[in-house]
Amino acid sequence: MVTITLRKPKPEEFELLADFQVVMAKETEEKILDPETVQKGVKHMMDNPSLGFYLVADVDGEPAGMSGVTYEWSDWRNGLFWWIQDVYVIKKFRNKGVWRAIYQKIRDDAKATEGVAGVRLYHAPENHTARSVYLKVGMEDCDYKLMELDFAST
User: Fold this and answer.
1) Residues 53, 154, 22: CA angle, nearest 5 degrees
2) CB 35, CB 24: distance < 8 Å
3) Tens-level pLDDT at each residue, the chain (154 residues)
4) Top CATH class, 4-136
5) Comparing C-alpha atoms, which of 101, 87, 91 is closest to residue 4?
6) Rg (CA), the chain
7) Can you count the helices (H) and strands (E) in the chain?
8) Given this model, what pLDDT does residue 149 score?
9) Which residue numbers delimit the N-acetyltransferase domain (predicted)?
């Protein structure tokens, strides 16, 4: 049995979190991200907690996975939604409860935080593995489709 410990990342771990995200994007969406841009983005959010936060899962003292959470204001609910972002678990630690532990911590902290209306995440439509994992922890499909105008990619 593995011991999973959840924690906020150390400031010097921004490169590790960025590396996780670069690998995750390639693995799940076949997207090649610029590591330097991702490092700057991770460091920026770590330096600006009003944007969100990261959570690292260690297994027996070794970083095994991570997720980020960003905030979205909902005037309909007069509260914040916590958006789970950048879910990644190193392959050798998958199916060992790492994602479930990360999710439960985020869910429980969101429920305990005044003014939080709920938790959301998105996944690529063809990523059926991710969808089944999210359903297993209790998330549900919602009525919304995500759309974007991505200035960084144009």
Assistant:
1) 40
2) no
3) 789 999 999 999 999 999 999 999 999 889 999 999 999 999 999 999 999 999 999 999 999 999 999 999 999 999 999 999 989 999 999 999 999 999 999 999 999 999 999 999 988 888 888 888 888 888 888 888 888 888 987 4
4) alpha beta
5) 101
6) 15
7) 4, 5
8) 87
9) 4-154
Contact 99, 133 (CB under 8 A): yes
Per domain, the residue ranges of the chain are 4-136
Q: What is the pLDDT of residue 40?
A: 98
Strand partners, 57: 6, 65
Q: Parallel, antiparallel, or unpaired: how do β-strands 79-89 and 52-59 relate?
A: unpaired
Q: What is the DSSP letter of 145?
A: -
Residues 6+ apart with CB under 8 A from 73: 79, 80
Q: What is the DSSP letter of 113?
A: S
Neighbours of 125 (CB within 10 A): 9
pLDDT for position 124: 80
Angstrom distance (rounded) from CA 21 to CA 130:
15
Q: In this structure, which amino acid lies at residue 79?
A: G
Structure tokens at 57: 């899962």
Task: Name the phi and psi angles at 87, rounded to 5.
Answer: -70, 125
